[in-house]
Write the structure tokens for this entry.
Amino acid sequence: MNILVVEDNASEQIIMKEAFKEAGVKHNLNMVGDGILALEFLKGQGVYHNAPKPDLIILDLNMPRRNGLEVLGDIKNNPKWVHIPILVFSNSEFPRDICRCYTMGANAFLNKPVDFQGFIDLACIIDSFWFKLVRYCPH
């Protein structure tokens, strides 16, 4: 399975890779640093011309250039991508952010863990729920 992680913080990208590895999650993690790159990845443009279609997207909410809400809207308004589950990943506790994400089609809103063990636990939960329990639209 292929997971696209859209995260502008390079340290959090490294932590996520290590947490998935530590948790024994074997899925392919693809990392991009902002919303523009996420769209290029999905379109297979530029350096992403051979990029795999993601089975799941973990999307940071607050990013430069094109923020998570804009990317969420782009994905959920495109018939080629609308079926891809999106987990919004944020430090925000604001109800308006959470509600807006769900209104725009996010499949889950997750707060970023505060420590490495939290990232490991989250990797295990994502793996067991999204890849073992959930059934996907076969596109």
About this structure: Helices lie at 10-22, 35-43, 68-76, 95-103, 116-133. Residues 88 and 108 are 6 Å apart (CA to CA).
